[in-house]
Amino acid sequence: MFQPPAIIAKPLVVVCPLPFDYIDGGAVAENTMNANAAELASVALRQRVLCGAGEPTLATTILDAPWAMPVALGPVGATGMYARRGEVQAARAASRAGIPYTLSTVSVCSIEEVASHASGALWSQLYVLKDRGYMRNALERAWAAGMKNPGIYRRYANPRLAVSR
Question: Domain FMN hydroxy acid dehydrogenase: where (predicted)?
């Protein structure tokens, strides 16, 4: 995957290795990450100019709502470790871009804080956990903060944290 050195080098100066590895790396041997990078590298885009296709737009509809482009800002666990009020900043950036923001189950900022600062669509990730009371509480808090179903989605993941090498 193309990673400009200037972009990668800067976080090394301001972030300690553990959080940087969490963002920059994949799990164990990084097989999935490397396969995804190889797949992306195999995509060839063919430029077409002066074809009379009209004014281009990325606008689309996701979950019956209009969006500026077919993208949602996905959850990044503990964003607040990387920037002060990181989840709030990310939600505001997504709003400015006209796309939904998805708050991580393991966010640093609370659901209520992010919702009070977000002007755009706010979704919430919810891990499937053994503690059903915690899950129920998270759903109730999300709904009370104005997040609407089906903007809340479930994620099934390996119960172990990724191992970075």
Answer: 1-165
Does residue 162 fall inside a structural domain? Answer: no
Instruction: Give the domain range for residue 1.
Output: 1-54
d(CA 30, CA 44): 24
Are 140 and 66 members of one domain?
A: yes
- On whether the CB atoms of residues 94 and 71 are closer than 8 A, the answer is no
Within-domain flag for 67: yes
pTM of the model: 0.71
Do 127 and 144 lie in one domain? The reply is: yes
**How many Cα neighbours within 13 Å face the side chain of 37?**
11
pLDDT tens sequence across 1-60: 445 455 555 555 566 777 777 777 777 788 888 888 889 889 888 887 777 777 888 999
Q: Are residues 37 and 108 in the same domain?
A: no
